[in-house]
Write a structure and sequence with these properties.
globular; 179 residues; 6 helices
């Protein structure tokens, strides 16, 4: 597939999305929300109300997309925890917008960054099993769902076996949110 060179960054983003794992797509959404919030902080500091609003609206849209794809039947407690995070995030964005508050957004960026890191770690955790040359030649597969941590997202949307970071306090394979 050829992409016009007029917009190489757009073509790169499109190829990145097409080649991403389901967990990688969730990481990309978090990256987009965090970047929009950081741009809103910069706009607040520069006194640019238009850019602040545009970036806060973008962050809200990304959070709404993440929230709208949650699957409460399969995701159980994971999906409910993420729903709470997204409701909190939207409220904090509204608060920051009304108060023109960069510190509120910076605290929100820190929270979302820690959850984003958990998604990233889940996407990049090594697959179990011996590292034979044949295993190393096979294409990487997303981790398979475990009975204790069903996917929190609906079919057709970004899915994950867990949105959690490993918990050393629990048995191997258990996860917890560190937001």
């Amino acid at each position: 597939m050829r992409y016009p060179m007029k917009h190489p960054a757009s073509a790169y983003r499109q190829l990145s999305v097409q080649g991403a794992t389901p967990l990688g797509l969730v990481v990309m959404l978090y990256d987009g929300a965090i970047a929009a919030l950081q741009r809103a902080v910069n706009a607040i500091e520069a006194g640019d109300i238009g850019q602040k609003c545009a970036n806060l609206n973008r962050a809200q849209a990304i959070i709404s997309q993440l929230e709208g794809t949650l699957n409460f039947d399969a995701g159980g407690e994971v999906a409910r925890t993420l729903k709470s995070l997204y409701v909190y995030t939207r409220a904090q964005i509204l608060k920051a917008n009304l108060q023109n508050s960069a510190p509120v957004l910076c605290a929100l960026i820190a929270k979302l960054s820690s959850v984003r890191e958990a998604w990233y770690e889940a996407d990049h955790k090594p697959s179990p099993g011996p590292q034979t040359p044949a295993a190393m030649d096979s294409s990487p597969q997303p981790p398979s769902p475990t009975p204790s941590a069903p996917p929190p997202y609906r079919s057709g949307a970004p899915t994950a076996d867990s949105t959690y970071a490993p918990s050393s306090a629990r048995e191997p394979g258990s996860w917890r949110v560190s937001a």
